Amino acid sequence: MSVSPSTTLDSQLTTTWGTTNSHPDVPMVMSGYTSRLWPCDTEPQFWSKYQVWEWLQQVLDMHQMDVSSIPFQNFDMDGHQLCSLSYQDFLRAAGSMGPILFQSITELKWSEIYNPLNHPLTPASPNPSSPAIKRSFSCQVKKHNPRGTHLWEFIRDILLNPERNPGLIKWEDRTEGVFRFLKSEAVAQLWGKKKNNSSMTYEKLSRAMRYYYKREILERVDGRRLVYKFGRNARGWRESDK
DNA sequence: CCTCCCTTTCCTGTTT
DNA sequence: TAAACAGGAAAGGGAG
Question: Per-residue pLDDT for A14 more than 70?
Answer without folding.
Answer: no
